[in-house]
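Throughout our pipeline, every protein is held as a single compact record rather than as scattered files. Such a record has a labelled line for the sequence and another for the backbone structure tokens. This encoding replaces a full spatial description with a residue-level series of whole-number codes. For reference, a complete record is included directly beneath this paragraph.
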Amino acid sequence: MEPISAAVHDDAAIERVIATLARDSNGGLIVLPDAFTTSDHRKNIIEQAAQNHLPVIYPYRFIVEEGGLMSYGIDITDLYQRAASYIDRILRGTQPADLPVQQPSKFELVINLKTAKALDLEVPLSLQIRADALIE
């Protein structure tokens, strides 16, 4: 396995990188969590990956729900719920500096079986069993 870093700054660069990675029959892509890839350009990444038959793993569940292949990352809902308890404590008078820093503790694996089928990928049963959610 050879990791390749590919910084992208626009849709044209996304298309070039995905086309290049798809040329390798064992190619794949890991999308890192940032606003550019998960908000502004996620639909283009999903579309280009589908067109080029490139397997991609994303950082968030909602991208897989929109057609991405799979995600492994923090459970955003859990983080928001935990943040709400902090807000409650602050509104009740606790100083923010007195609250401990929290790290994510719940991670989830989500697999879109429909996308896997479209990519001609067979998801092993052992991976399906470990997944927190399967989208069919």
Summary: The chain has a mean pLDDT of 93. Residues 69 and 115 are 5 Å apart (CA to CA).
